[in-house]
TrEMBL record:
GO terms for cellular component: membrane. This is AB hydrolase-1 domain-containing protein. Residues 27-141 form the AB hydrolase-1 domain. PANTHER family: AB HYDROLASE SUPERFAMILY PROTEIN YCLE, MONOACYLGLYCEROL LIPASE. The keyword Hydrolase applies.
């Protein structure tokens, strides 16, 4: 575990690699989702398998999340991409990396790939999409519900979550409400600069989309296939938005196949 100064903000980072002392073949960077998520969703799912496969694995908590610093403002998508860029610089990761992003983390990863094609080897979007006007509007609606139902009516909302989703989900939701209440995240993300269609089409690295078969994001597959030059998709039946946690072996296996194809990882 380490705290890294990434351009004026301290980010909590976990880095792991092959346990047998092998020199890693490549670096994979794992970017988690929004509000209720942290690097733990990777630490307890796919990260060990990636390290065992010979990869240098970098995980970090986004600003405001997990153990990273929580500034009161500065939560736009571009600022999150800036954090990723500064973090890789601080860690001296100079070669092309394999980016994996879950939910909002995939939107960050895609933005990084669009900004730095020379630093991106492959890109995996787990239940995620690039930043478009439609994406910003959808995130605005989601974050508005968080602000109104959780941040402004927390006791009743948490009681419902405990009854229907359990105490652990309620604990995560309570943290999400605090983040939304104490920062400008809820306003910053929907107001973020989005990508043009031209910028999305310019992403030429191999891209993998992984979706739950019961998730509405699976409808993005034909759209992304039309926009992206080198795109493949996996839809896992019976799963929804939490497919990373629900089916880590399947998700991790498909990501490793993509990385092996581009980096020769055995």
């Amino acid at each position: 575990m380490a705290m890294v100064d990434a351009g004026g903000i301290r980010l909590h980072v976990q880095r792991t690699g092959p346990a047998d002392g092998r020199v890693p073949h490549a670096t994979v960077v794992l970017v988690h989702g929004l509000l209720t998520d942290s690097l733990a969703s990777y630490y307890f799912t796919v990260a060990p398998a990636f390290a065992a496969a010979g990869l240098d694995v970098v995980m970090y908590d986004l600003r405001g999340h997990g153990r990273s610093e929580r500034p009161p403002d500065g939560y736009t998508l571009d600022q999150n991409i800036d954090d990723l860029e500064a973090l890789l610089d601080r860690l001296a990761v100079t070669g092309p990396v394999h980016l994996v992003g879950n939910s909002y983390g995939g939107t960050i990863a895609f933005g990084f790939a669009a900004r730095h094609p020379e630093r991106t080897a492959t890109l995996t979007l787990i239940e995620s999409e690039p930043a478009t006007a439609a994406w910003a509007a959808k995130l605005g609606r989601i974050l508005d519900r968080v602000m109104t139902q959780l941040a402004h009516n927390e006791p009743d909302a948490l009681a419902w979550i405990i009854a229907h989703r359990g105490h652990n989900t309620a604990r995560l939701a309570k943290g999400a409400a605090r983040l939304a209440r104490e920062t400008t995240l809820g306003r910053d993300i929907p107001a973020s600069r989005v990508l043009t269609e031209e910028a999305i089409r310019a992403v030429r690295c191999p891209v993998l989309g992984v979706y739950g078969g019961e998730s509405d994001l699976a409808d993005l597959v034909p759209v992304e296939r039309e926009l992206l030059t080198d795109y493949r998709a996996v839809v896992l039946p019976g799963h929804e938005h939490s497919v990373l946690v629900e089916a880590p072996a399947a998700v991790g296996g498909h990501i490793l196949d993509l990385i092996r194809a581009g980096a020769g990882v055995g």
